[in-house]
Design goal:
By secondary structure, the chain is α+β, with helices and mostly antiparallel strands. The protein contains six helices and twelve strands. Helix content is 26%, strand content 23%. The strands form three sheets. It has an eight-stranded mixed sheet, sandwiched between helices. The protein has a two-stranded antiparallel sheet with strand order 9-12. It is globular, with a radius of gyration of 23 Å.
Length: 242
């Protein structure tokens, strides 16, 4: 006969404790405004560019990395549906997408690139708990990836606005009817579409939009060799114009 003690059962934490912890992982507009978030020089151009590239629908989040000239160097869009928004979960999904589209800058003494987040949702433009959780998640993800935490922008059926700043506009805005998101890969967090663009150098002219440059790949093909007067085959390479 052997005697022993049964191991204690793993009990989930009380709902009140979990709710209190979740509420602690969100930022209110006043906290966000006092955090020293850098202002965008031209938020309308940034919002229009991200909207044109990703075409977000409600519940779509777009995280983008800007260089020192506010050019988008990398961006990713994905859908995130949750009944109880949690900044910790949002931080993890943002960090996962940032790691896919751009290397970290943790070796630098100070961040030189800035991450901004645009969230398309239903409802009114005023701050919600979901917005607060995204703010907390963006700030933490930027710290872990070596980036400067930038603006948080909401896109609602009425308008777009930069929360904590009061700047916004009526175009673009969230579509009134949600459409399925075109996905290039599927993850546990939902549908995800990733874009990576290379910013033009300051000394080179910009003759096309970033979306056009990303959407039109450069293709190469060889035509059949033809013989010259000397009988030697001559190969031609054709490169599609950008």
């Amino acid at each position: 006969m052997t005697f022993g003690f049964a191991p204690p059962q793993q009990m989930p934490p009380p709902a009140s404790t979990d709710s209190a912890a979740r509420l602690g992982r969100m930022l209110e507009p006043a906290e966000w405004a006092s955090a020293g978030i850098p202002l965008l020089r031209n938020p309308r151009e940034v919002v229009a560019g991200l909207h044109d590239r990703h075409r977000p629908v409600p519940s779509t989040a777009i995280v983008a990395v800007l260089d020192t000239h506010e050019r988008v160097t990398a961006s990713a869009s994905f859908t995130e549906l949750t009944a109880a928004p949690d900044g910790w979960e949002f931080r993890n999904v943002l960090l996962a997408h940032l790691r896919r589209v751009i290397p970290h800058d943790l070796r630098l003494r100070a961040p030189v690139r800035t991450a901004v987040l645009l969230y398309c949702r239903e409802g009114e433009p005023r701050w919600t708990e979901t917005d607060g959780a995204w703010m907390w998640g963006l700030r933490d993800a930027c710290t872990l990836h070596g980036l400067r935490c930038g603006a948080y922008i909401t896109l609602t059926p009425d308008r777009w606005q930069v929360l904590g700043e009061g700047r916004g506009g009526r175009r673009p805005k969230s579509p009134s009817v949600a459409k399925p998101v075109t996905a290039s890969r599927r993850t546990g967090a939902g549908h995800m579409e990733t874009h990576r663009t290379t910013a033009a150098r300051p000394d080179s002219p910009r003759t096309e939009s970033p979306r056009t440059a990303a959407a039109v790949p450069v293709t190469q093909h060889r035509s059949a060799p033809r013989r010259t007067g000397g009988g030697a085959p001559e190969a031609h390479r054709h490169t599609a114009a950008r």
